[in-house]
Automatic annotation (TrEMBL):
The keyword Membrane does not apply. It holds the Pfam family Pro_isomerase. Keywords: Isomerase, Rotamase, Signal. Coiled coil: none annotated. GO terms for molecular function: isomerase activity. The keyword Lipid biosynthesis does not apply. Residues 1-23 form the signal peptide. It comes from Pontibacter aydingkolensis. This is peptidylprolyl isomerase. Residues 69-246 form the PPIase cyclophilin-type domain. InterPro entries: Cyclophilin-like_dom_sf (IPR029000), Cyclophilin-type_PPIase_dom (IPR002130), Cyclophilin_A-like (IPR044666).
Amino acid sequence: MRKKPLTLQFARAAIAASCILFAAACNQTSQDETDAAAETGTTEPTLEPLTSETVVDVLTEYERQHPDSIAVISTRHGDIKVRLYKDTPLHRANFVRLAKSGFYDQGEFYRVVKGFAIQGGDSDNREMKNGAYKIPQETDPKYIHKRGALAMARYGDERNPEKESSSHNFYIVLGEPLTEAELRAYEAQHNIKYTPAQIETYKTIGGEPGLDTEYTVFGEVIEGMDVAEKISQEPVGSGKWPTEIVPHKIKMAKQ
């Protein structure tokens, strides 16, 4: 039985009105337990649970020692290779740390919305815990929610006004091409100005500009968008949970 999720909402504003398209879930059990990870392959021997007081210092130091930037997300549909941005260092370090510890090997893509996004990182069957913390936001105007963007989920604004990211829940953007008029509306809504290149990207490959400035984009898919599409087409039940779970394993790749 799945735990009742704590919800955070992804909103995509239409030009005339806004509608809620996606609700992300974070495991609601306290994550202050356990120090266990297999000492195999490139995994770290332990995963020390982090707290809001230790997260920045630990991730800053970890980032210095682990410059990894390419990860492979493996599923029964195939592999998705992602590149992590070096100028979102806390998010990159956090993702690398969880991947190397084996934490993400106990996760799954647990919510999918065809044409919008697939979300992973969590699982009701996980035994490892990573601590009760959030990651300070690292939003950067040059990183948009284009098709293939990798970003972190978060709790909604009412309980998280600083837009800090989830400790482990991530998503990959799908989305469709948009018109320039739609993009200008998003610029006004979010008080941002897209570059000509960003406008062209949204007009040609698509994405979800309604999420820009709201969530931290910290990487992008470089291979395997066809796999992401297959995952997005999984049959779903209530809450957009796949009726058949889609487990994932995440490993860091050689640069």
